[in-house]
Specification:
Number of strands of chain A: 0
Oligomer: heterodimer
Number of helices of chain B: 14
Strand content of chain A: under 5%
Helix content of chain A: over 70%
Number of strands of chain B: 19
Distance between the termini of chain A: 16 Å
Largest sheet of chain A: none
Order of helices and strands of chain A: HHHHHHHHHHHH
Helix content of chain B: 10-25%
């Protein structure tokens, strides 16, 4: 196990270095740089001044030198300063990441719990209601998250005035746990719609499939109560694909968070990244991309290990499975 | 996100906001000073905006100013303030000054302290000006001070405890520049203590102090109880600036009572807002919109064709489709503003005149067909723009395209991402790439010098955004001479003549002056006007 982890660790490191080089190079190869965007739009384009600005951010150096400077600072934990806001990128990232984590983890828990329960219900409930349970996920998956967000915001914030329409806390004296929780409801629900519908559909489909398996038939023939068969035999097997897709779902949520954060003015990593890319705010884009890549790498790692623990047929020890 | 992006080219950043907010100069109405008696509930004003200043709140280092409640302008003050009503400088932190061609001697206001208790005096002024203009000053920190660039500063010396003398390069209206954001006074003690993080919690002398600052999210200001002006003070006790990039989210906030006022309400929501008993008003800005005609390429290398399209563009139609957000503009400078030339005949909408000029230029309509041609070549022009335009700059595009087709042009369009569009080599600075470019700018300074300078030869890309590539020796000479002419009348003559030349050569179609909407809840706010710089006129806010 430890050898497996070490091997994966090395591979992950290589991936992260690769991502950082790619992002670094790509950002510098596309036209436009932060100084010309910032100064150009502000009518301050005297070449002398642009040069001075560029020098003050080290952007006059050759790209490999810039990369090395960035990397060597990074290794000491220094992500540099944002070109646009001048803030330390480390501080900015930490603040934005915590906001995204609040939103993402709430949405993930919501998506899993609702999705699995829904899938189970859809697999076992018959009749018209069962039909609705089965087809609704397809409908919900087809809806783009931002339109759901706008609709929910309008209904619950503007019309019913039950929940705040956007932001992470009340404008005046906000910031308590309850206050943040109230603000989290709408964006978390919006973000959870697709993954929960997807999970429901996946759970239901794999239960349907498992119902026809020999071991279930055998269990039924042996007179084991249906509830026990579902809980102990069908469900653990049905959840395997849900877990495999967990990584994909987190990927989806990271992408969708960009839209959801924008719609609800959630001060998270998504909105930060979009602004940073448009402004060519190199240090922020680089740190953000590295963060997203690290999240992905770690998640696939965790899922692999979990998978091995849940399914004895998968081997992570480097020896053939028994 | 969309909203931030769309505003970049014109509004958020183009507003130079060169003038510091007019702490005393613009005083119209102010709340009375507190009187004894039962303490009233604090008046909180929650202001929603989709654009935020980038880079903290220290006026001296800010690059981009938002059209918003200006954080620097509410917390920091300059030596003078600029009064828009009279186009003149008024006392600020200096009570009087003596101007000579190469120096200004400022007499400072006594009894003023920075918000951290540090006294404001000649030492503080010397520290501040040296920090900004002197690279070797220990607190310069190698930072860039963007708008310092415009100030004709040479050196500063302390004359006595409350007097400083500033040496300058001879410049017309030199004292105006000491109202610029770049010369807002900061507490020397705080600057020294906070280093490169100073911009996030600056300490000035202004009527408000910063309680918290979170970039692009939220800024909170509270009344400076020790403000030097005890005679008058602005109405709100606390100001909360909420920044959300999505204007629709802000509109929801306003409709649901989460905020009291928003700047730039979405056009499609204004009717709904009025139905909800909210107040919606528009205020003129110093932002103008235009199309640049590439004078280096046919057909716009011919002045007659340029004049023709100027007659062909229907400004009144643009005003109509902009629903209150635009005024027609007929020249290079704002009607009625300082040094505006009212005697120049302007291009009013006249498609027949346009057709006649095109005929004279040799571009004739074929017997059958709608596209003009000359020597077997069709009159095809390439329109170049960035994606995601909204507001007046978005609205002026369909007006242009249909107007041009009406008089016999065929227009091809190319749209690109903002960063590419603004590239001075590969984007709108590439003269081989297009015939007509869409643009707009903020002047935010009452003097037309900077606005007119844009069209000089020295500002042809890649130097600057003279996107018409207009290269006139005569025009450039007029504008460059005006830059240093100290005789007021002579200088006015130069600036006015430059406007006439520009009108005749027609390298630009001036389309409109932008207006900015504000929507607010009248139960919380009675009045909240904007200055021409698009910054809230703090002293004119009225709250019930």
């Amino acid at each position: 196990m430890s050898r497996y982890l070490a091997r994966r660790g090395l591979a992950s490191l290589a991936i992260l270095v690769g991502v950082s080089v790619l992002v670094f190079a790509a950002m510098r190869l596309v036209p436009g740089d932060p100084i010309t965007i910032m100064l150009g739009t502000a009518e301050l384009a005297d070449p002398k001044f642009v040069d001075e600005f560029r020098r003050s951010y080290g952007l006059d150096q050759p790209i490999p030198v810039q990369y090395w400077a960035w990397l060597s600072h990074l290794l000491t934990g220094d992500f540099g300063r944002s070109v646009v806001s001048r803030e330390l990128v480390g501080d900015l990232l930490l603040r934005r990441l915590s906001a995204t984590l609040v939103l993402g983890s709430t949405a993930a828990v919501l998506a899993l719990v609702v999705g699995i329960l829904w899938g189970v219900a859809a697999a076992y409930v018959r009749g018209l209601f069962g039909g609705v349970l089965r087809s609704a996920p397809l409908f919900l998956m087809a809806l783009p998250s931002f339109s759901i967000g706008i609709a929910l915001g309008f209904i619950f914030a503007v019309w019913l005035r039950l929940l705040p329409s956007s932001g992470m806390q009340s404008p005046v004296d906000g910031g308590s746990v309850m206050d943040i929780l109230r603000h989290t409801v709408l964006p978390a629900v919006t973000l959870a719609v697709y993954p929960s519908a997807f999970t429901a559909r996946l759970t239901q489909a794999s239960i349907d499939e498992l119902q026809r398996e020999d071991f279930v038939r055998t269990a039924q023939a042996s007179g084991i109560p249906p509830g026990r068969i579902t809980l102990l035999h069908v469900l653990p097997n049905a959840l395997l694909p849900v877990m495999t897709n967990g990584g994909v779902m987190v990927g989806y949520m990271l992408t969708a968070a960009v839209f959801v954060e924008a719609v609800f003015a959630w001060p998270g990593v998504g909105t930060m990244m979009v602004a940073a890319v448009l402004n060519r705010d190199y240090p922020v884009v680089q740190a953000g991309a590295l963060l997203v890549a690290t999240t992905f790498v770690m998640l696939s790692w965790i899922i692999d290990v979990l998978y091995g623990l849940v399914d004895p047929r998968i081997n992570v020890r480097g020896r053939p499975a028994q | 996100m969309r909203a931030v992006h769309q505003r970049m080219g014109l509004r958020l950043a183009a507003i130079l906001a060169i003038t510091a907010l007019l702490a005393t100069g613009c005083t119209q109405t102010t709340a009375p000073a507190p009187t004894s008696g039962a303490p009233a509930a604090p008046k909180i004003l929650i202001f929603g905006t989709s654009t935020a200043s980038a880079g903290g709140c220290d006026g001296t280092t800010l690059v981009q100013y938002a059209i918003t409640f200006s954080c620097p302008a509410t917390t920091q003050e300059g030596l003078v303030t600029f009064d828009w009503a009279t186009n003149s400088a008024k006392p600020g932190l200096a009570i009087s000054w003596e101007e000579k061609p190469d120096s200004i001697t400022f007499k400072l206001r006594s009894g003023v302290t920075f918000q951290d208790g540090t006294p404001f005096n000649a030492d503080a002024v010397v520290f501040n000006l040296r920090r900004v203009f002197d690279k070797s000053h220990p607190q310069n920190l190698g930072q860039a001070f963007p708008y310092a660039f415009y100030v004709p500063f040479k050196s500063v010396e302390k004359v006595d405890e409350m007097t400083v003398r500033v040496s300058i390069t001879p410049t017309p209206n030199a004292v105006w520049y000491f109202s610029f954001m770049a010369t807002l006074m900061q507490s020397p003690k705080a600057v020294e203590a906070k280093g490169k993080d100073y911009a996030f919690s600056p300490v000035g002398t202004g009527p408000y102090k910063i309680v918290s600052f979170e970039d692009k999210v939220r800024v909170e200001l509270a009344r400076n109880e020790n403000y030097w002006n005890t005679q008058q003070r602005p109405a709100p006790d606390r100001i909360i600036i909420l920044i959300k990039s999505d204007v629709a989210a802000l509109a929801n906030d306003l409709l649901s009572g989460n905020i009291d006022v928003m700047i730039e309400p979405p056009v499609e929501q204004t009717d709904k807002m009025k139905d909800a008993a909210l107040k919606v008003e528009f205020f003129p800005t110093l932002v103008y919109n235009y199309f640049g005609l590439n004078t280096t390429k046919p057909p716009f290398d011919d002045v007659k064709v340029r004049q023709a399209v100027n007659y062909a563009f229907d400004k009144e139609a643009l005003v109509k489709v902009s629903k209150g957000a635009a005024q027609a503009m007929y020249g290079a400078w704002f009607e009625g503003a300082y040094a505006y030339n009212a005697d120049v005949p302007q291009y009013k909408f006249d498609p027949n005149k346009a057709r006649q000029l095109l005929d004279e230029a040799g571009w004739k309509l074929p017997a059958s067909g709608t596209v003009r041609a000359k020597g077997g070549q069709q009159l095809v022009v390439k329109f170049f723009d960035r994606t995601g335009r909204t507001g007046v700059q978005g609205a002026q595009v369909p007006v242009l395209l249909s107007n041009l087709q009406d008089v016999g042009f065929k227009v091809e369009s190319e749209l690109t991402e903002t960063a590419v569009y603004l590239d001075k080599v590969k984007g709108v600075g590439d003269k081989t790439r297009f015939n007509i470019g869409n643009f707009g700018h903020g002047s935010a300074f009452p003097d037309p010098q900077i606005a007119l300078q844009r069209w000089t030869s020295e500002n042809i890309p890649p130097a600057e955004f003279n996107i018409a590539f207009y290269d006139s020796v005569k025009y450039t000479q007029l504008v460059v001479s005006a830059r240093t002419e100290l005789n007021v009348d002579k200088r006015l003559g130069l600036l006015k003549e430059a406007q006439r030349v520009l009108r005749d050569d027609a390298p630009i179609i001036w389309t409109s002056r932008s207006l900015i909407g504000m929507a607010w809840n009248p139960k919380k706010i009675t009045a909240i006007p904007l200055l021409p710089t698009s910054i809230v006129d703090l002293w004119a806010i009225k709250m019930p």
